[in-house]
Amino acid sequence: MAVKKRNKTAYKGVFYITSTHPTTGVNEKIFYIRYYKNGKSIEEKAGRQHQDRMTPAKANRLRVLRIEGRVDSNEERREKIRAEREKMNTSRLWETFYDAKQENKSIKDDRNRWRAYLLKDFGRKIPEEISTTDIDKLRRKLQDRGLAPGTVKQGLVLLKRILNFGAKRGLCQPVNQAKLHFEMPKVNNIKTEDLTPRQLSSLMEAIETSSNKPAANMMLMALYTGMRKGEIFKLRWNDINFNRGFITLKDPKGGTDQRIPLNNLTRSILEDLPQKDSEYIFPGRDNGPTKEMRIPFRRICDNAGLAKDFRPMHGLRHVFASTLASSGQVDMYTLQKLLTHKTPSMVQRYAHLRDDAMMKASEVVGDMYQKMQKCGGQKR
């Protein structure tokens, strides 16, 4: 390839070559500047005659600014652009966080929260640029959308977890608590759903008449065992020991496999189910585990006339626990084990039901003594 002729201009260190524009086909001058900076000879393009409206005088002014360091050289500008692109923004930090947390059961929920609550406002931000004002704006924005306090808190907590993760991995600066404050909304998670005898009767009737038998049987399983929705969805036939009368919950919420009793009501449901070509008791698509049954569950609850805020499967788990606690026949430790909670604190919400049952039981003695006293008085 022939070397194009360099043409001098009236300005020192400014020259041009003549070239054909690749798009228009018009011949034009391309101006270059040559100078020394920090002892290094630099030669770079200043611009095109027509496309950039470059002239020898403009090229000379650019050369002077570059020599004085008031304008970056082309290489310096390219380096800054590269550095900016490689800078760890919050989106890249999230991607690293997501890849590292694949074993977490909640990572899919985190991904949904990231996309719904954080990506738009924080994706392009550099972690060090995030301020308390940004956090406050996010909290107000989510609250203005009508999200529940618990949901707002989950979004804020996720952002904080991402930043802390980045700091521990050396991907960004540690969160400065003095400059970056996460004010969390107040959340009352102690929601114990229960059903009156009439509501429970209506629900049982709606379950019995439901055309969606898998959904109906899942709801009965939750009511009879207190199992979580996810545990029922992924329950396999080999998790059921019909001979010894136990159900094994593999990889439950607490992380450690648990065993719960197979009571007669649950046994009856399972024995009546047809065993299809799947290892799962309630198979979904492609004979894998069921992923979602929200609409059928909701329809059954609506047919029973239950409140819209009653959570079908989680609510039935509460009904199971409340029924046992109020019976007066089950202590809190046993209830904790049946619900597969790690600590007793999670079953304390049912303690008052147990106390009420004990109070009623103690009154039985008083009633008996009163009857005995009345009988004794009549004999005298």
From TrEMBL:
* Signal peptide positions on this chain: none
* UniProt keyword annotation of Cytoplasm present: no
Q: Where is the Core-binding (CB) domain?
A: 88-167
Q: Which InterPro entries does UniProt cross-reference here?
A: CB, DNA_brk_join_enz, Integrase-like_cat_sf, Integrase_catalytic, Integrase_recombinase_N, Phage_Integrase
Residue ranges of coiled coil: none
Q: Which UniProt keywords apply?
A: DNA integration, DNA recombination, DNA-binding
Give the GO molecular function terms.
Answer: DNA binding
Biological process terms from the Gene Ontology for this record are:
DNA integration; DNA recombination
Q: Which residues form the Tyr recombinase domain?
A: 190-363
What is the protein name stated in its UniProt record?
A: Site-specific recombinase XerD
Task: Read off the lineage from the record.
Answer: Bacteria, Pseudomonadati, Thermodesulfobacteriota, Desulfovibrionia, Desulfovibrionales
